[in-house]
Design brief:
Blueprint (H helix, E strand, L loop, with lengths): L3 H12 L9 H16 L8 H11 L10 H14 L3 H5 L1
Helix pairs in contact: 3-4
């Protein structure tokens, strides 16, 4: 009788076309490396003008923004209410 890990691993290997899960490591390491680099350089530069515009729009929520959807501004308003108007909050 097969163990639980073997029952899970066999369909996973079949789904991946017979490749070993170890072959998928670069597909996780490369995006992880890019994320670490982006997070390390996050506060190297100040606010960009579009980010300042979004902060102003987040202070006055409305449905009629022509150049961006209202949900993104509403999410920014919630994030700034929780974490403040820092550069990291706006960019993440």
């Amino acid at each position: 009788m097969a163990t639980i890990s073997e029952r899970i691993r066999l369909p996973l290997v079949q789904w991946m076309g017979g490749r070993s899960p170890a072959n998928l490591v670069p597909y996780f390491l490369v995006p992880l490396a890019f994320a670490v680099i982006h997070l390390a350089c996050l506060s190297e530069y100040g606010f960009f003008r579009d980010e300042l515009y979004f902060l102003v729009c987040a202070e006055r929520l409305a449905w009629g923004y022509v150049d961006h959807p209202p949900l993104s501004v509403a999410l920014l308003a919630g994030a700034t209410a929780l974490f403040g108007e820092s550069l990291e909050t706006v960019r993440l």
